[in-house]
Structure formats: C-alpha cells, structure tokens
Design a protein that fits this description.
The structure holds two protein chains of two kinds. Chain A is built from 13 helices and four strands. By secondary structure, chain A is α/β, with parallel strands linked by helices. In chain A, strand 2 (57-61), helix 3 and strand 3 (85-88) form a beta-alpha-beta unit. In chain A, helix 1 (8-24) crosses helix 2 (39-52) and helix 2 (39-52) crosses helix 7 (165-174). Chain A is globular, with a radius of gyration of 19 Å. Chain B is built from nine helices and 14 strands. Chain B has a six-stranded mixed beta sheet. A six-stranded mixed beta sheet of chain B has the order 6-7-8-9-12-13, with helices on one face. Chain B has a two-stranded antiparallel sheet with strand order 10-11. Classes of the chains: A alpha/beta, B alpha/beta. Chains A and B meet through helix 1 of A and strand 10 of B.
C-alpha cells in the first residue's frame, strides 16, 4: 500500500511559518498570489493570509475570455473566505494583439502567453503592492514539468512545491477550502474543456503514487513494475521527469573563470538574514 | 551536587556573527539570572548552518584576543557557555566546532568528527572532519560534546562514556523531514536516540537544536534533557526560540549505576580485541 497521507495540521503550521519567515527576513510584510480559482492557488493564498494577515495579501484574478466562469466564482469564494485584498484584471486585451499576429498559433503557445502575462502582472503588482510573489506549483507538476517556464512557475517562494497534488488536496480539506473547488477536475484553464488529467493522460492519484516510489522511496523502474505499475507508464513518467529537468534549474552558465555563479559561488538565498 | 543546565534553541542570522553574538550574550544574561550553571547552544550557533562559501568568512581562531571569544569568555565568568562556531586551524583548515568556555578560559573544543555529505547535506565539500573524541573535566564533572551527525554514530557517545563523561552535551542544526506524524519526522528519531543513550550509558544526555529556516530547510528546536534512567527531565517547545532549564541531581548517577551497573560490566578490552580482529581485514 502506497500511502501519501500527511498530517495536514503539521504541514499547515510548517508552511505558515515558512511563508512568514521567508517574506519578513528580507524586509517585506506582504505577498501577491495569482488566484486562478483552482485548488493549488487557493491553498497558497490561504496559507499566505494565515502567515501575513488578510490586509497584507493581494490576490489577483486574471481571466482570459475563454476562462471558465467557474474560475472567477471559485476565486471569489477564497476572497470571501480570507477577506484578503484583490484585484481583477482581464488579460484578454493584453494578450490578444500578440495572438492575432500569429493566426496559426497552437493552444500550447497561447496558453504559455497567458501564463506569462499573468506572471508579468504578478511581478508588476509585487512592485506596486510591495509584496513577494507566492508560488502555487505542486510537486507533481514540478516533477512532470507540467508548467510554463517563467510563467506560472515564476515566484519568490513556493510553500507547496514539496507536496504532491493529492497531498495538496488533503491540506486543502484541512484549510476548509469550499467543496466546489475540491471537487472539480484540476485544470490550467488555458482553453475551454482543458483538464490536467486529460492532457497528461493519467490521473494524479496514479502518478503521485508512482512518483512517490521513484522520487521519495528511490525505487528502481523494475521495482515500480513489480509494485504493480504498468511498465510503459513507468518509463513514460521517468522520461517526462528527465526531459523537464531544465524547468527546475537556472539556465547553465558557460564556465570560463575560476569562480562562477551556480558552480563555485555558492550561497543560500537567505544569506545574511 | 546539583547543576542547573540551560538549553538555548535559537534562530540565527546566516553569516552575521555580530547579531548572533548579541543573541548569545542576551540569553546568557537571562540564563544566569535564572540560576543556570551551564548554557548550551545549538550547532553553529554563532554563524548559522548552511554556510557554503561563507565558511572561510566566518571562521575563527578560538583565542582570547578574538573579539567574539573575548566577549563570550567574559560572560563565562558568570556561567559556563557551550557555543557552536567554525574553527580555523593554523594551517587554514575549517571545522564545525563546539567550545566549552568557563571562568574566562577555553576548557575544551570539539571538532565535528562525522560530516554528513549526502542528500541535503554537503558538509565535507566545505569543511574538514575532526579526528578526536575526548571527554574533558569541568567544575561540574567530566563531560563530553557531540555535534549532530556525530551522535548518529553509536561509537561516538560510547567512546566519550568510556573516557569518563557523565554528562553528554549534544547540539544540532537538524533540518526537519517527514510530515506524516504528530511532529516533524526527524524530531522523533533524535528524541528516541537521546533517551536510548541516556539509558544504555547511564549518563545525563542534553540536546539542543536550532529553530527557524534557512531557505526551505526548517529546524525544529525541541531541546531535551534525560537523566541516567532515561527519564525526561525537561523539554523545550518545537519550532520556537526558547530557553529550557533543567536541574540535574548528579547523585542520580550513583543511584542508577548501583541498580544498573552497565558501566562496571562493560568490557572495553573485549571490544578492542574484536575491533582489532575486524580491522585486520584478513
């Protein structure tokens, strides 16, 4: 039995402390969160509010014209629950000129542009509001690379990046996130009818268990097969994790000198704080 | 004799020794006014833990003319201080070290012997391992010090025990891992170990640990003191800075060892014989 259950009360406490520590130690008191209406950003937003106070968290709702109407409403449920500050700014008129320039544009390109436009707004509001951008990417999507580089993956700190999607769901229940958000199928909501599981070709339930064996338990591929996973699925997931390593690291710098950022100039982000 | 032991579990500023020193001195004042005889700080309490390339910048020679040690030694006129720092030796090797300071003197320095360099740990990249495990005499009896990974090796407390230590002072900067239990996973493992050492060696075991974050690493605090029966004498809170006081009745050593003469019955000669055989590699 592969058990991904967590102690949500413990995790909640740790993550609230993490946000408070990482925001305040660099002289900030506020945070900005892109609130999509989905589960992950709802969790990040609630944790940020608990850490910093409702008046210190700015939640952004950034719909595109094809965004599901549910998304705005579900984000509203979180705004009502937390009482945090909010700003709703449709991105349609911002991205449309670029999309029109390339009529043949694929949904993936369009989706990336939307994700990056939301990043631009989050970072602009970071400056305007004086808050750090709190990330919303979970461990499953980070490992699978199911994210837009410099888009939704961009943030100053990420409280939920070491929780698999099914673990975020457990935490969400403890945070009393409304059932409507908990129950709906996860979606990047970049085009109508898109769902994560439809696009990935497997369920979070399945892939989280497999990733847990591969990553956390250090199982070899053949041991995953022995544990009951389909061999093709195992190899597809391993390959996907490998191919997306580039999204998890800063870009490589060509080493020329005796001391190079990233290789032998090594300091924590929290250096001096 | 009774000894009042104070355990500080503190957050630190990474690489800011002046700020960390001030916190040490403030806590020493508080501990002293609470009647403490000894104040134990966590691993690398004067520097912070994930130092990486900061190691040479924070390294110190523990000498009376060093301004940092000067301030600490002055305070050690009031109570004994046990502090964590990076030691630089005369040939510029750097060690994770713990210093026992008493009545203006540096009584003993322990250099961390086991440097974890696996998973999230990378100590050997930056630091040299110590090469000795010695108990030492203080005005409160014979003690031993171990730093974090040192006590994950069963031979470390064993050797200090045979060398005469009746009180083991353990210090950590232990990053929490494990989110299924009541407390963060690593806490339970360390507490079990401390209690077990106290029972098996019939000694006092005190442990303190960092709190706060360094990047995403979370240090969990939770200082403990066990007596030679393995009874918990005091426990600090998890995750918060605090000062935990414990009253140690050293006569408990006699009472426990009369009932349970494990030290008397230990057979170090047998251990040596078997070790020599094992180490001959034939």
């Amino acid at each position: 039995m592969i058990d991904l259950s967590i102690n949500p009360a413990l995790v909640r406490k740790l993550l609230v402390e993490f946000i408070r520590s990482e925001v305040t130690r660099v002289g900030y008191t506020k945070a900005v969160v892109n609130l999509s209406g989905g589960l992950d950003s709802a969790v990040s937003c609630l944790l940020a509010v608990e850490a910093l106070g409702a008046e210190n968290v700015l939640a952004l709702r950034l719909p595109y014209k094809t965004s599901s109407a549910d998304s705005l409403e579900h984000a509203q449920l979180i705004l009502d629950q937390t009482g945090c500050r909010s700003l709703t700014l449709p991105i349609t008129e911002m991205v449309e000129p670029l999309l029109e320039r390339f009529p043949e544009m694929t949904p993936v390109r369009k989706g990336n542009i939307m994700a990056r436009m939301r990043m631009i707004i989050a970072y602009d509001q970071s400056e305007a509001f004086g808050g750090l951008v709190v990330g919303t990417g979970n461990k499953t999507e980070i490992l699978l690379g199911y994210t837009t580089l410099y888009g939704d993956s961009a943030c100053a700190l990420n409280p939920i990046g070491d929780l698999y999607k099914t673990q975020v769901r457990q935490l969400a229940r403890a945070l009393e996130i409304p059932e409507a958000i908990l129950a709906k199928p996860p979606s990047a909501d970049l085009w109508a009818g898109q769902t994560d599981e439809g696009e990935l070709g497997f369920t979070y339930e399945e892939v989280d268990q497999l990733l847990f064996l591969i990553v956390d338990q250090r199982y070899r591929p053949e041991e995953c097969v022995e544990a009951g996973f389909d061999e093709a699925f195992v190899h597809r997931v391993i390959e996907r994790v490998r191919r997306n390593q580039f999204k998890r690291l800063p870009p490589p710098i060509a080493k020329l000198s005796s001391r190079t950022v990233g290789y032998d100039f090594l300091y924590l982000r929290d250096w001096g704080t | 004799m009774n000894v009042t032991l104070a355990l500080a579990q503190i957050n630190t500023k990474l690489g800011d020794m002046q700020a960390n020193l001030e916190k040490h001195l403030a806590l020493a004042k508080e501990a002293w006014s609470s009647g403490a005889d000894i104040l134990l700080f966590p691993e690398l309490s004067l520097t912070g833990y994930v130092l990486q390339d900061l190691v040479p910048a924070v390294a110190r020679r523990p000498q009376t003319d060093d301004p940092l040690f000067k301030a600490l030694l002055k305070t050690s006129q009031d109570l004994d201080l046990v502090v964590g720092f990076v030691e630089e030796d005369p040939r510029h090797r750097f060690y994770i070290a713990h210093a026992y300071l008493s009545q203006g003197e540096i009584v003993h320095i322990h250099r961390k012997v086991h440097l974890p360099t696996y998973t999230l740990f990378d100590e050997k990249r930056y630091l040299a391992p110590g090469d000795g495990l010695r108990a030492f005499d203080t005005r409160f009896g014979r003690l031993g010090m171990l730093i974090c990974e040192d006590f994950w090796h069963i031979s470390s407390p064993y050797l200090l025990w045979l060398d005469g230590a009746d009180l083991l002072l353990m210090s950590s900067a232990s990053p929490g891992r494990g989110i299924t239990g009541e407390q963060i996973g690593s806490a339970e493992a360390v507490e079990t170990m401390m209690k077990t050492y106290a029972q098996l060696l019939t000694v006092f075991v005190a442990h303190t640990n960092r709190v706060g974050f360094e990047d995403g690493l979370k240090f969990w605090g939770g200082a403990t003191v066990y007596d030679p029966d393995g009874t918990l004498l005091a426990k600090g809170p998890y995750d918060e800075e605090s000062l935990t006081l414990a009253e140690l009745d050293l006569e408990q050593l006699r009472r426990t060892r009369t009932r349970l003469p494990l030290l008397r019955d230990e057979r170090p000669e047998l251990v040596r014989r078997e070790l020599e055989r094992i180490l001959r590699h034939d």
